[in-house]
Design goal:
eight-stranded mixed sheet, 3 domains, 9% strand, 54% helix, binds nicotinamide 8-bromo-adenine dinucleotide phosphate, single chain, 12 strands, Rossmann fold
């Protein structure tokens, strides 16, 4: 049999979609899955007439590939990926390419790059965003690792990616874990924007007494304006979905507890390690954690007093304010994410091109949005842009919407409706634009109890005061 162009290991939702996508671009694909039944079901149901063949052992899988071999792993992140690599590496030869398309933690990718290198195998850690449909029709692809490997497989990856206003939404971002790091921050921004949309829904639903269809109309209108994005679009569609069992909106029948699988948490952990301020991403992770404390919340509701959760204002005015609030929160969250990428790039020597990151996020991925077009242009104009918010049109958008944003956050707080993503986004910008923050007092406090010393504004050097003697 003619050697196959590429092999995919892992035939769960993402793997299957990716295989069909690759084949549709003219490549022959050999597939392998640990559990044979899954392979058989896939071959029987989805591959008729396609250049897709199955292997039932890893040995057979590797032997059927053209050299240098191109192997794409699409299995569960963590230990399963390590277990698979351990079995694959002895079967591969120097110069073969091994790719991990799972949501790997970036430190695992660093380690795996080194292990693969030890075998002469060229390793790529690849962030794939877009879910099942994206993987099938065109995801955003964020590659990192061996540049030589990208030279071998880049044309395949670029052919299967989504096409945005500036071409294929696939790029090589830098050495070792650069691709997985970019994907992780992508997911962090995704957390923040999803949370902001949930807060907008809560404010309309509880705060303004709007029903799901009315809220869907608002999201539909936003999707025609600056907030046009995949997440706004799916939120509208979710709100329109009826539940046949209750004959009401399905969203109202869904339990209010959210999981957080890892990437948002990792993004926040890394931000803390780097000293990069990404508070809205962290707020979104904490919001999910609090949501999961359902029993606690049910117990606390009658015990802890608060205001009536109603926004005492005109509905149309409130909806206008909400638009400003979600827009400013999104801009703030993207700004935080890009800033984190900039810090990580310096610290971890990724050499990231942020214009390329924004360009790749323009289509295919979960955070694709109209706003990414001017973001890409902003980084193309100024590659060392330190804060996206400072560039046009974002500075002007901020100026236009910040008053409404503030009012909305204040009203939400008055009504006792939590808006952690929105308020952290506002606090972030307010802190960032304040030339003198109260950290002078903080330095003094640290020096008081720990003799940590402080700096002065009028003299160089470090200083210490015997504070206990001051009365
Ligand atoms: P899952 O994350 O559910 O993984 C299931 C796959 O992993 C199956 O093929 C399973 O084989 C295989 N696997 C496991 Br579990 N342990 C294995 C082992 N020790 N050796 C070999 N294979 C093993 O699948 P998914 O949702 O398609 O996601 C695949 C990857 O893509 C994940 O890393 C995920 O984080 C990432 N991702 C997912 C999405 C999404 O929207 N779902 C989006 C972007 C990225 P089996 O059939 O034998 O159990």
């Amino acid at each position: 049999m003619k050697p196959m162009d590429i092999g995919v290991v892992g035939l769960a939702v993402m793997g299957q979609s990716l295989v069909l996508n690759i084949e549709s671009r003219g490549y022959s694909v050999v597939v392998y899955n640990r559990t044979t039944k899954r392979t058989e079901a896939f071959i029987d149901s989805r591959t008729a007439g396609k250049r897709i063949t199955a292997a039932y052992s890893l040995e057979e899988f590797v032997q059927s590939l053209d050299k240098p071999r191109r192997v794409f792993m699409m299995v569960r992140a963590g230990d399963p990926t390590d277990a698979l690599i351990e079995r694959l590496l002895p079967l591969l030869e120097p110069g073969d390419v091994l790719m991990d398309g799972g949501n790997a933690h970036y430190e695992n990718t660093d380690r795996r790059c080194r292990v693969a290198e030890g075998h002469g195998v060229l390793y790529l850690g690849i962030g794939v965003s877009g879910g099942e449909i994206g993987a099938l029709l065109g995801p955003a692809i964020m590659a990192g690792g061996s540049e030589e490997a990208y030279g071998i497989v880049g044309s395949i990856l670029e052919s299967i990616a989504a096409v945005g206003p500036q071409g294929s939404c696939c790029a090589y971002f830098g050495p070792h874990s650069a691709g997985h790091y970019v994907k992780m921050v992508h997911n962090g921004i995704e957390y923040a924007i999803m949370q902001a949309l949930c807060e907008a829904y809560d404010l309309m639903h509880r705060g303004l007494g709007m029903v799901a269809d009315e809220i869907a109309d608002v999201f539909a209108a936003w999707n025609e304006a600056e907030l046009e994005s995949y997440l706004v679009e799916i939120t509208e569609r979710i709100l329109r979905q009826n539940d046949p069992d209750s004959d009401g909106p399905l969203v109202e029948m869904i339990l209010d507890t959210a999981a957080q699988k890892g990437t948002g948490k990792w993004s926040s952990q890394s931000a803390l390690d780097l000293g990069a301020p990404s508070p809205s991403i962290a707020a979104a992770v904490f919001a999910r954690i609090i949501s999961s404390m359902k029993a606690d919340r049910v117990r606390a509701e009658p015990l802890l007093s608060g205001p009536c959760p109603k926004l005492a204002m005109d509905r149309a005015d409130a909806v206008d304010m909400l638009f400003s609030a979600v827009l400013c929160t999104a801009i703030s969250a993207y700004s935080q994410g890009f800033r984190q990428l900039r810090s990580a790039s310096k610290e971890r020597n990724y050499g990231l091109d942020l214009a390329e990151v924004a360009r790749v996020w323009m289509a295919g991925c979960i955070i694709r949005a109209r706003l990414l077009v001017p973001m890409t242009k902003a980084f193309q104009r100024q590659s060392d842009l330190s804060m996206l918010l400072l560039a046009e049109p974002f500075r002007s958008l901020w100026e236009e919407h910040q008053t409404q944003f503030r009012r909305l956050v204040a009203r939400a707080h008055e009504a006792g409706i939590p808006v952690p993503a929105m308020s952290s986004a506002l606090d972030f910008v307010d802190a960032y634009r304040t030339s003198r923050l109260p950290a002078n007092l903080l330095q003094a406090q640290r020096d008081f109890f720990g003799a940590h010393t402080y700096q002065r504004i009028d003299q160089d050097g470090t200083f210490h005061t015997e504070w206990e003697q001051v009365r």
